[in-house]
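Table 4 source record.
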Amino acid sequence: MQIRPAAALTGALIGMSALFLPTAAAQATGHPHHHTVTVAHRGASGYAPENTLAAVDAADDLGIDWVENDVQRTKDGELIVMHDTTLSRTTNAEEVFPDRAPWNISDFTLDEIEKLDAGSWFGPEFQGEAVPTLEEYMDRVSDNHQKLLLELKSPELYPGIERQTLRELRREGWLDHRHKRRLIVQSFDAASMRTVHRLRPDVKTGFLGTPAVADLPEYAEFSDQINPSYKTIDADYVAAVQAVKGAHGKPLEVYTWTVNDGPSAVSVAGMGVDGIITNKPDVVRDALDDAS
């Protein structure tokens, strides 16, 4: 385990804990409240450089339990945490390696990626922030007693990444009984999620997207969640998803993304979603708290 450094953000960011929001859907079924989980997208990426340990810590400083990340693989087979399939947007790779365009992650070794600055693009106070390995990321989430929504990013580029990721999760203890309750694996790639479910049917999985209602039973064979963009859903769609039982025999959940303002958060929570993924988790949480 790594020792967490001093937090980059001040105590002013520290917020309250998660909340319970009443919704029409919950009231209609006789439940007084519907628990809407707030998930910090790529960490609290509105306040720190995305997918870095600083962003994990920023979410922790805000009192956010769930963080989301993106996993990819280097040229020499190491798993790292980054959203884009190239290094150019969130690191100084173009400056350090000017002759390596288009700077695909898969063209760089871990040693080369560890030489990069993944923080200065966001703000000078994050200069020198590194691209974390998946192991480092999981260690920090564990140290903070947080929960992890792990996305396999573009798995078609990395054959076998499902098995490799599960192996690393197991090695780090994330597949034991205690940790499994704090883990969801998701992807836009249905075949990838089917593979994860086949390899480890005990792991909770989510499909990123908005499948047609008629196709939901097929996705439910290997998914526990359907996680769409908030711009593609309404209350009827959310209800249709939740009416279908997922891979573990429980109603499919809906975690929607990426909601960054209070009014939109209140609106989608009113549709009955189970979770909201956001760059600004304090804004979403506080808006839902006020609405309750």
